[in-house]
Design a protein that fits this description.
4 domains; 657 residues; Nitrite reductase; 17% strand; 7-stranded mixed sheet; Rossmann fold
Length: 657
Amino acid sequence: MTITGGRVSPREFPTNRGGLCQKGWTSAELLTSPARLTTPLVRRDGVLEPATWDEALDLVAGKLAGLRAAHGPDAVGVFGGGGLTNEKSYLLGKFARVALGTSQIDYNGRFCMSSAAAGGMKAFGLDRGMPFPVTDLDRADAILLVGGNPAETMPPFVQHLKGAELIVVDPRRTATAEQATLHLRPAPGTDLALALGLLHTAVADGHLDREYLAARTTGFDGVWRIAATWWPERVERVTGVPVADQRAAVRMLAEADNAYVLTGRGTEQHASGADTVSAWINLALALGLPGRRGSGYGCLTGQGNGQGGREHGQKADQLPGYRRIDDPAAREHVMRVWGVDELPGPGRSAYELLDALGQPGGPRALLVFGSNPVVSAPRAGHVADRLAALDLLVVCDLVRSETAEVADVVLPITQWAEEGGTMTNLEGRVLLRQQAVAPPDGVRSDLEVLHGLAVRLGQPADRFPTEPEAVFEELRRASAGGAADYSGVTYERLRAGEALHWPVADRSTPRLFLDRFAHADGRARFVPVEHRGPAEPPDADYPLQATTGRVLQHYQSGAQTRLVAELNAAEPETYVEVHPDTATRAGLRDGDRAAVVSRRGRTVARVRCVPSMRIDLVFLPFHYAGEGRANLLTNPALDPTSRMPEFKVCAVRLETV
C-alpha cells in the first residue's frame, strides 16, 4: 500500500483497487444537495417547522424523561443502522442502556446479515463475514456464490471473481449470473434443499474430505442422516435444478485446488435463513474448505458498515466486542468500562421492536438513527401504522426520508465526507474515514446529538464524548478480550496505513481459523438442518412468488440515491420483472402499470417483461417510496434463531391498474 501525504493511493487499496460503482462516483452530489437538512424540525399543529437545536433537544429530552417516569425505561426504543460508523454504533448502544436504561434497541442490520451471523457462530464459534482477505479470492479456481448479485450491488468486488469458475445460485438470471460458468436456478425458497442435495452428491460421488473431517470437525453423522435422503432426483423435483448441474457444481468445487462458498442476502433473508446458511457451511466443511489457506466460506455484507455495525452493541442481545448481553462476565466487563452498576437485559429484535410500538407493553417513543423503516421494513404499511401510534418519533437524518416525514422531531446530521470515524469492511478490516469537508452550518454529528440528549437526561458530560477518536479509545477498552477485539487498533496505526483485521489484541488477524476454529475444542461444527420451504407458499388466490432485491443505481431504501439526478434518471420508478407469458395471463404488457398484491398490501409498479424470468416468479427492487414500496408486500415471518424476516419470498398475484 502506498501512503502519500497521509493518503492512501486509491488504486493500491486491495478491496476495490480504486474502482467505484455509479453510486460511488455520484455520492458527492449529496454534499451540496438542496434536499439537505440544515436545521432541526419540530412538528407543530401537524406541520414540521424549523426550530433551534436547544428547542429540539430540550423537547426530546423532556418527553423522554416524562415517558420513562410514567411507564418505565422500556417505554423508549432506539433503532440504529448498519451504515453507522463503529463509534456511532458503540455510543448508540451505550446511550440506550445507560442514558435511557432501555433494553429496547436493535438495528436494520437484523434485516441484512443476521442469518449469516447466526450460521457462522454455530459452525465456527465466531462471525466475521469473510474470515480471509477479499484478495484471496483472486487465486480461487472455483467459487460458489449463493443468493448474491455483486455485479449490481457492489461492482468493484466482481474483479476478484474473474479468475475462477463461477457457480451462481439464484432464481433470476442476474447480471452476476450472466458472468457465471454455471447458473443454478432453484425455485424460490428451496435453497436449503439444494444445499442438502449438493452435500449428498459430494458424498455419493466420492468428494468428501474425510481426513479434514476427522481432524477439524465434529457432527458430520447427524448431518448425513438428513442429507442421505436428498438424492439428486428428489432435489430436482423440489428445486427444479437438473441433476447434471448439481453434479457439475460439486465436481467444480471438489476438483479445484482453491475453492470458496460465498452466501448473500438471497439465500439468507428467509424464515429458515440461519438453517440455510448452515446447510451451505456444511457443504463447505464436507469439501474441507474453511480454515484452509486459499479456500473457505464467507458471506457478503449488505451495508456500508455491515460488519462493524453488528459488533459493538446496537443489537438487542449484544454488548461491545461481539459480547452477549446475557453473559455475566461480559456485563461485568462493560459495566466497569462504562462506570455503571447495572445494565438492562436483552430486548426485542428489529421487526418485533417495530411491531410493538404503541402497543400495550411496547415502546411509546422511538429514536431512529441511520434507517428508514417506512420503506425498508417488512410489512411496511403496518410498520408505518405503528410509528404513527407513538407518543414521540425522533429521526436523525441528512434528508427528509419517508420516516423523517412522519416524525415529531427531525435532527439534521453530518454525512460521510463531513465527519471522521472507523468502519469495518466485509473481511473484518478496520478502516479510518477522515473528514474531508466541513459540514453545513446548523448540522451536527450523531455523536453530538447523543451527547446533547444524554446531558439533558442527567448524564455526566464526559460519559458521552463527541470526538470519534475519543469514542474509539473507549470502544477499544470495551471490546478488549471479546470475540471482536479492537484493543490493539488505534487511529495512529490506521493513519499509518496498517491493515488491521480483527481480532487485534496486538497483531492483525487477516485469516481466521487456519489453526483452529473458535469453539472450545477448536473444531468446526456440522449443524443438522432440514428443508422447510417458504413460510407462505403460493395458492389459488396468490399463485406467484415475489422476491425483492437491489439494482445498480440505488441503495437500501433509496432515500439518498433517489435525490441524485444521474441515478434517478436511470431508474426513476419501481418496476416488476415478469416472464412475458406470466404478464399475458394477467392481462398485462411490457410498460403497463400493474398492481402486485399480497396478503399484507399492494404495490404499484411498471411491468418489465424479461424472458429469462421463471414463470412462477416476479421481482421488485425495494428502493422506492409511496405505493411503489416493495415491502408493502413482504412477509414478516421470522427466523427462529436470527429473527430475520422472510424478505425474499412471499405469495402474490398480478392485477391490472
